[in-house]
């Protein structure tokens, strides 16, 4: 444990392109963009299917197929295949492959939770809103979406935390992020460096979990009613 503490105290590990702040920025960028891509694709689809009440089971099953494919295998196939290993802007080498892999990994919890949240909205409430003359768009925006929000946010929480933890795989194809600390530690047989990198990733994942839990509680109908 002293070796891990010494690693954190070493100023060289906090400066330059290989320092923790820069790698933390790269890791965060990978996570945020990947989840945003998954949200842009999966959230509108799941909301629409949940509102209609049809076709959602097929969409959920299709997105869940991705969970059966090992994430490292998918990244390797994409990096060695159509997306290549060339640098992609701030996302570094194999950036396109890494982004697509992480976005596909984020899709299942977003689609599944959003669809489930929509179909579990009380049908009596929905029919009462229709009886009041609400349009379908207004019904979705003012009734279904607020009631489904806790489950939707839970799906986003799962996606963000999972992608954050999994983004370390970018280092396996010479990509950016905190995974470079871990892979460098393994290559140099430096256990303290591996543990230090893992602790940073785990600490941020725990912080993200707590933040989203607080948001989820705030968005719950009981919380809204009590404010």
- Can you count the helices? 10
How far apart the termini lie comes to 46 Å
Described by strand count, sense and barrel closure, the largest sheet is: none
CATH class: Mainly Alpha
SSE pattern: HHHHHHHHHH
Our Rg estimate from Cα atoms comes to: 21 Å
Give an overview in words.
This protein is mainly alpha-helical and 227 residues long. The protein has ten helices and no strands. The protein has helices at 2-9, 20-52, 56-64, 71-80, 95-119, 123-131, 136-166, 179-187, 191-219, 221-226. The longest helix has 33 residues, at 20-52. It is elongated and about 65 Å long.
Task: Considering the chains and any ligands shown, give keywords for the structure.
227 residues; mainly alpha; MetI-like fold
